[in-house]
Specification:
With about 400 residues, this protein is an alpha/beta fold. It contains 14 helices and 16 strands. Bound molecules: zinc ion.
Length: about 400
């Protein structure tokens, strides 16, 4: 007998649109009654009861009596079951695969890492051995959880169709299908995403998305990365990977970026550009960490350079928020603390918000900062994987 997808328990297949909507509510906003969920999702009580039964039967959710009912009948509270799904998340840098395994709430249950094969002639990291490394990483993480239901891989660069790495910035990849071979090797559902998009998906469910349906993400590190969540949907493919914002002019008399723009955002903010300018001025190699240390010791040149970077970041925040029409921007990345420590960041934003003499200020901006280690990036991959496995 052939069993239709909707006749099988919700735990053994992708979720229906209704089941996904309820699960998503429970994951993002926490436990709720059937009545509350029905109201929020505009679902009739009968349909909501059917969805709740399917999710409970499939092990995706549990239902318990409210612990201390005040007056009247105690209410049934529906809660998502964290252990219903486990997904491996992997962040690929140019030389290392960082792995985590997460439950359905995105909680990291275990971590592992492995070296990637060295780049071959032409500078590209070989693909088949990379697939093998990710599969081995998955095998190492699998015993830490009851079962692994999928894999989410986050890479810097441009990714198409949740699968093809069109441009793998640090891997030297062009048009590499990563999801296909990894799926074949592991037998698991696989999603490949840009790393900032993975972070956008993570923030959508477990961060800024809890309070804002539209928000932007800016990451600063080796380069500027951007992510967009619009009306509750994370944009999977960006038109330019943030290039237009990264090269917006800040000061026409400022330093030059590697493309030759005078005083663009990248010229102030990119780690490489900052280091190049500081090294040229000092006549010896100066690293980003040197600059941060020098500022802490009171060095004026280092303070000026990091303030300049923070001001450029403030302008990007303001422009991005204005273009997206959101009051919420999330800042992340390895270098972000060095810029949020500077008062110039908030000064630049405040100056952009300042109204004219006959105007009133129309909004303020919520600036959320998320620390980002490679494990956090891998967790972004895992959350993208969870969403993919659930059918989001
Ligand atoms: Zn530029």
């Amino acid at each position: 007998m052939v069993t239709g997808a909707s006749e099988r328990p919700a735990g053994e297949r992708g979720l229906t649109a209704g089941e996904l909507a309820v699960t998503r509510q429970l994951l993002i906003h926490g436990p709720a009654t059937r009545g509350d969920l029905g109201d929020r999702l505009n679902i009739s009580y009968a349909s909501m009861s059917r969805l709740a039964r399917a999710l409970i039967l499939g092990g995706m959710a549990s239902e318990d009596l409210e612990p201390a009912a005040a007056i009247g009948r105690p209410r049934q509270i529906l809660t998502a079951v964290p252990s219903a799904r486990h997904v491996v998340g992997v962040k690929l840098t140019g030389d290392t695969a960082y792995g985590v395994v997460c439950d359905m709430f995105g909680e990291v249950r275990a971590t592992a890492r492995a070296a990637l094969p060295r780049p071959g002639e032409g500078g590209a990291v070989p693909v088949a051995p990379t697939v093998k490394v990710i599969a081995q990483l998955t095998n190492r993480l699998a015993p830490k959880v009851p079962s692994v239901d999928g894999i989410g891989v986050a890479v810097g660069g441009v990714v198409a169709d949740r699968s093809i790495v069109r441009e793998g910035t640090f891997l030297g990849w062009r048009d590499v299908d990563l999801a296909g071979p990894l799926r074949d090797r592991t037998g698991l559902p696989v999603i490949v995403t840009n790393d900032v998009t993975a972070l956008a998906r993570e923030q959508l469910w477990f961060g800024a998305g809890r309070t804002h349906s539209t928000f932007g993400i800016i990451t600063v590190g080796a380069g500027l990365g951007v992510g967009v969540v619009r009306e509750g949907i994370a944009l999977e493919e960006l038109i330019d990977n943030g290039h237009l914002l990264a090269h917006a002019p800040v000061d026409s008399s400022g330093p030059r970026c590697s493309l030759g723009h005078q005083g663009c955002v990248a010229a102030y903010l990119n780690r490489e550009d900052l280091e190049r300018h500081a090294s040229a001025a000092a006549n010896c190699p100066v690293t980003f960490d040197d600059l941060v240390r020098a500022r802490a010791a009171g060095d004026q040149d280092a303070t000026r350079r990091l303030d300049g970077a923070a001001r450029a970041l403030g302008h990007v925040v303001a422009s991005f928020a204005g273009a997206l029409q959101t009051t919420c921007i999330v800042l992340g990345g390895e270098d972000v603390a060095a810029f949020t420590d500077s008062p110039a960041l908030q000064e630049a934003i405040d100056d952009r918000l300042r109204p004219g003499p006959l105007e009133t200020q129309r909004c303020t901006l919520d600036l959320l900062t998320t620390p980002l280690t490679f494990t956090d990036w891998a967790r972004g991959g895992a959350v993208a994987g969870i969403q993919h496995v659930l059918g989001a």
